[in-house]
Amino acid sequence: MGVVLLVRHGQASFGAEDYDVLSETGWEQSRRLGRWLSERDVRPDVILRGDMKRHRDTVEGMQTGAAWVSSSEVDAGWNEFDHLGVVSAYSRSGADLPQGRNLGRREFQQVFELATQRWTGGGFDADYPETYVAFRARVAGSVERANAAAGPGGTVAVVSSGGPIAAVCAMLVDPTGDDPATFARLWSRFNTVCVNTGVTRVVVGSTGARMLTFNEHQHLDGDLVTYR
After folding, report:
1. String of b and e for 45-54 (b: at least 16 CB within 10 Å)?
2. Consecutive H or E run containing 211
3. pLDDT tens-digit series, residues 126-159
4. Start-end ranges of CATH 3.40.50.1240 in the chain?
5. Burial class (CB in 10 A: 0-12, 13-18, 19+), 20
6. SS3 160
């Protein structure tokens, strides 16, 4: 069987001028993950990543920690959805969110969850450059490519974000996705608990892909366990 390791990026720089760079915590998380994988003789045959800076930097940190010399390949399908755009659309909808206010991590998370509920619920698709349905479709295409790259007996590491990883998990738990509301609830539950540099293992065999583990983060302790 092949194995796909879905890795959420290290902690980004919340509240900074450029969110899309790793914090010092994010760099340390990435290096620790690389060391942890190397100690367990995990050496990916292929490393895939989104084209965001936090994805690139997480790969670099992992390579440093593991002493891997392999390069990574970019697949923009693994990019996060525009979470700030989703929150902004929620604000414009008349929600009670003061404009220009600096939100702390916990308060932002509360607003984020309400905003994504609106995005995933449909009915307001014109408010978003990328609808939730389109987001799911692009992630589905990327996971198919990753599964194919794993092949029989190969290992693929994918560095992405919480949103795409949660979408893959929801697809594996609910392959048909017949009820959009149920699928969206699954996605939200996975997305809200993804740890920075957490690892989700997917095995790919003759019967398709199956989720083996979700959100492993034994390589982290104390303040290094972060969710945003």
Report:
1. ebbbbbebbb
2. strand 208-216
3. 999 999 999 999 999 999 999 999 989 999 999 9
4. 2-80+130-222
5. middle
6. strand
Residue 5 β-bridge partners:
157, 201
**pTM for this structure?**
0.91
Q: What is the pLDDT of residues 31-72, one digit of tens each?
A: 999 999 999 999 999 999 999 999 999 999 999 999 998 889
DSSP code string of 6-36? EEEPPPB-TTSS-SSSB-HHHHHHHHHHHHH
What is the predicted pLDDT for the residue at 192? Answer: 92
Distances (CA, A) of 77 to 18, 58, 68, 201: 21, 17, 24, 19
Domain 2-80+130-222: which topology? Rossmann fold (3.40.50)
Euclidean distance between CA atoms 211 and 228, whole angstroms: 23
Mean local confidence (pLDDT), 210-215: 97
Strand arrangement of the beta sheet that strand 46-49 belongs to: 73-74, 46-49, 155-160, 2-8, 199-205, 208-216
Give the type of residue at 186: L
| Residue length of the chain | 228
CA distance 210 to 169: 9
CA distance 217 to 147: 22
Strands 73-74 and 46-49: parallel
Is residue 156 within 8 Å of residue 178, measured between CB atoms?
A: no
pLDDT above 70 covers what percent of the chain? 94
